[in-house]
Amino acid sequence: xxxxxxxxxxxxxxxxxxxxxxxxxxxxxxxxxxxxxxxxxxxxxxxxxxxxxxxxxxxxxxxxxxxxxxxxxxxxxxxxxxxxxxxxxxxxxxxxxxxxxxxxxxxxxxxxxxxxxxxxxxxxxxxxxxxxxxxxxxxxxxxxxxxxxxxxxxxxxxxxxxxxxxxxxxxxxxxxxxxxxxxxxxxxxxxxxxxxxxxxxxxxxxxxxxxxxxxxxxxxxxxxxxxxxxxxxxxxxxxxxxxxxxxxxxxxxxxxxxxxxxxxxxxxx
Amino acid sequence: xxxxxxxxxxxxxxxxxxxxxxxxxxxxxxxxxxxxxxxxxxxxxxxxxxxxxxxxxxxxxxxxxxxxxxxxxxxxxxxxxxxxxxxxxxxxxxxxxxxxxxxxxxxxxxxxxxxxxxxxxxxxxxxxxxxxxxxxxxxxxxxxxxxxxxxxxxxxxxxxxxxxxxxxxxxxxxxxxxxxxxxxxxxxxxxxxxxxxxxxxxxxxxxxxxxxxxxxxxxxxxxxxxxxxxxxxxxxxxxxxxxxxxxxxxxxxxxxxxxxxx
Lengths: 269, 262
Hints:
The structure holds two protein chains of two kinds. Chain A is an all-alpha fold. Chain A has helices at 5-20, 24-52, 60-85, 87-92, 95-101, 106-113, 117-135, 144-171, 179-193, 202-211, 219-226, 237-260. Chain A has one domain (18-263). Chain A has twelve helices and no strands. The radius of gyration of chain A is 19 Å and the shape is globular. The two termini of chain A are 32 Å apart. Chain B is mainly α. The radius of gyration of chain B is 20 Å and the shape is globular. In chain B, a hairpin with a 2-residue loop joins β1 (49-50) and β2 (53-54). Chain B has one domain. The interface between A and B is medium-sized, with 32 and 32 residues.
């Protein structure tokens, strides 16, 4: 690792922001559109719970808190992992060849070369707003223990999703088009994760815990802080594993990446 | 008429090429239905009816609504792409009506969606979650007619969004914002029976409830006799209003258009 890593990251970031915000009104409109699109699910659950009061014992504030973890982690994730999200495109148009030739780490370049700031701002702002609105009304005692747990589970949540992105990026070395697969496993599972997983069929719960572990991004961390009765169906250990699972999964994915990168064949000729 | 049928046919055939995409499409529609089914199962708990609406009516609402909305996929960025790369100039030279051509292509892709997305998703939904049958065969017929009118409302809204290409750089944002309004206010994410009264008061003055909710209420027999007639008229009125807005923008836009380069 060269000692200019940090300044290079800043330099890349500066140029991405510059290019994104070339058209100012458009940039503002675009951030707003992303914000509104992501807020759709929340608007819907809010309106629904005006009618129904609670879903499996979770009231509106607790639901917003559950949602906030999903959005805060994605907001942070997308600052660092946009390059991996769009990785199959980088492979397809041959940009990866250029990256290989440069005298810096591959993953470092992919991570810093592009950040989707609209998504970061849209999701991040939404997540923080939801957190501020709900955090005081859900009966969490904020002390050193809970604050540390919260911070670690956010980092863990980012890394869990980062590991999923990195896994599918590594798969692109074997299969040229992985967008659809990721769409199926990541985005569809994320749709489930907005709600307490206890409302779903056992099979879906199993997927969300063991295959695409979104339950550890928001459900189990929220359970540690809220202690809702539906936690009784799961082992207590899950709540304590949540903050550390991300690191483990990320390391596994990183190993897979290191292994797969050797199989790279350029799409060009 | 012949060239338009040809446009529709071409789009249909083009769509056939991406086989994996339509498998994914069916899968996504079913998943979406399943998620809402789980949510409403938890919300209903042990009660059989809430506000006179049974759980199976809610399920039917979601199956039809999500099925139709996945079928009525319209590319909002079509005109913008043509404006940006200047190829819209060629469109003006062709001996076909540009607006008619867009409509024809969209109808082609909707017929595709109906056959390869709506019907398979419907089958899966019937097997796994169950759907109420229409109250009568007449209701089914009226439902189909009303759904077609619903499509034209949605299409006119999309056309208006597309017409903004003449004034703004990026239609994507406007299209995204429009989709949020359509998704929330048309009842495809929250059945309009359960919408708070204040929001319903607002929806009354918008075309959104006329897209999916009117046909579905007819299907379920939640609406009878004169009400059906009035709601058909309401749908047609919206088509007329939106048509006029779209037409004005289209005329103005043509005058405003400056194609760069060349």
